[in-house]
From TrEMBL:
Transmembrane region(s): 294-317
Family label: Belongs to the sarcoglycan alpha/epsilon family.
Membrane topology: Single-pass membrane protein
Protein name stated in the entry: Epsilon-sarcoglycan
GO CC annotation: cytoskeleton; dendrite; Golgi apparatus; sarcoglycan complex; sarcolemma
All residue ranges annotated as the Dystroglycan-type cadherin-like domain in the record: 25-133
Keyword Glycoprotein among UniProt keywords: yes
Species this chain originates from: Culter alburnus (Topmouth culter)
A GO MF label: calcium ion binding
Extent of the signal sequence: 1-22
Protein task: Component of the sarcoglycan complex, a subcomplex of the dystrophin-glycoprotein complex which forms a link between the F-actin cytoskeleton and the extracellular matrix.
């Protein structure tokens, strides 16, 4: 096992790495930023080699991290990985509540080329130190950085160096790093290489410098209220690499902070009592046989359906009286009367079928005397025949017009 000490500015994170399949052990301190990089190169040896030599680095690998026995990570631990071709990063700031409780994180690597997985355990042993947390804490908002860029050791070291030149403390360490997206920030537009922004909290053992307190002056407070940049004398020491939003800086002296203890009221009706953490059932529980329940679920409805089917079949088939029995129970006079009605009905229907009515000549098609073509009838099929004259020689007197004739005497007569 190899022990590697990572020194970032004045941030010390001790990590014990192992190239074997054994668990990894890390020893962060409570109140100090913890950063652990999930290197893709470490897991590539557990996957089949790439067909082409030298192209193994192109395997897309993603990571899934969770607390052992639980679906998610602890509340203080975060994880980020931008693309399957970049390393993943676990980061966070453990508190004194987690001291002495080993935290086992299950790390599962997914190779999206071969669809294979590799799993390792990361054992986080949180140590307690009397030096941390430091009493004076300042939180900066850096607008031109993403969280994975800020977690890089060289970038974080440069930022702590700039803060040390401005603050001049004896001890300085990074306490926590939070993405602006975790604080309700919006995802930036993919133009002009915009960044999402990151909050960096640092702690020191001396009072805040005059430069850091310049943001509390009435003039700068007014400029911040008008969405203007305040005038800070030490901003030029950060401007070369870090664009800080001084209106969002937070200065906290934890020695003067009064802890607020809220007395929880008694739970009322309908509120479940606080029974602590969830304990899953033991794996030694006896398995239950559901075969009897399955039979009951099917047998009872099937039996009821069978009984109903038998009753219906008996009523429809075995209880039929028939035509002969019906006739025997009917008086003869009714049968004779019914038979005579049927005979009369059949006779009328047969007589109606034998009727032949000659259609008027005006409705029959005729031939054209010259061309020989069939000429349609004078009246269409939908012509109302109720007003048609019985004799084709009858004429409509209302539409008849007589031509006047001239006599010898020269008088007109109609």
């Amino acid at each position: 096992m190899a022990s590697i000490g990572i020194f970032v500015g004045l941030v010390v994170v001790v990590t014990i790495l192992s190239k074997s399949h054994a668990d990894r052990n890390v020893y962060p301190s409570a109140g100090v930023l913890f950063v652990h990089v999930l290197e893709r190169e470490y897991f590539k040896g557990e996957f089949p080699p790439y067909p082409k030599a030298g192209d193994s680095s192109n395997d897309p690998i993603t990571f899934n991290t969770n607390l052992k026995g639980y679906p998610d990570r602890p509340g203080w631990l975060r994880y980020i990985q931008r693309t399957p071709h970049s390393d993943g990063v676990l980061y966070g700031s453990p508190t004194a509540e987690h001291v002495g409780k080993p935290t086992i994180i299950e790390i599962t690597a997914y190779n999206k080329r071969t669809f294979e997985t590799a799993r390792h355990n990361l054992v986080i042993n949180i140590m307690s130190t009397e030096e941390f947390p430091l009493p004076y804490q300042a939180e900066f908002f850096i607008k031109n950085m993403n969280v994975e860029e800020m977690l890089a050791s060289e970038v974080l070291g440069d930022f702590l160096g700039a803060v040390k030149n401005v603050w001049q403390p004896e001890r300085l360490n990074a306490i926590n790093i939070t993405s602006a997206l975790d604080r309700g920030g919006r995802v930036p537009l993919p133009i002009n290489d915009l960044k999402e922004g990151v909050y960096v909290m640092v702690g020191a053992d001396v009072q805040f410098s005059s430069c850091l307190r310049e943001v509390e002056t009435p003039q700068n407070q007014l400029r911040c209220s008008q969405e203007m940049e305040p005038v800070i004398s030490c901003d030029k020491k950060f401007r070369a690499q870090f664009h800080i939003d001084w209106c969002k800086i937070s200065l906290v002296d934890i020695t003067k902070v009064v802890p607020v203890r809220s007395n929880r009221p008694d739970p009322g009706i309908g509120v479940l009592p606080d029974i602590g953490e969830y304990n899953p059932p033991s794996e030694s529980l006896k398995s239950r046989d559901y075969f009897a329940d399955f039979l009951i679920t099917l047998a009872v409805p099937s039996a009821v359906a069978l009984v109903l089917f038998i009753i219906l079949a008996y009523s429809m088939c075995c209880r039929r009286e028939g035509v002969q029995k019906r006739n025997m129970q009917t008086p003869d006079i009714q049968l004779v009367h019914h038979s005579s009605i049927q005979k009369s009905t059949k006779e009328l229907r047969s007589m109606s079928k034998n009727r032949e009515i000659s259609w008027p000549l005006s409705t029959l098609p005729v031939f054209h005397p010259v061309s020989g073509e069939v000429v349609p009838p004078i009246h269409p099929d939908n012509y109302e025949t109720t007003s048609m004259p019985l004799m084709q020689t009858q004429t409509n007197l209302q539409n008849q017009i007589q031509i006047p004739q001239q006599q010898i005497s020269g008088k007109w007569y109609s």
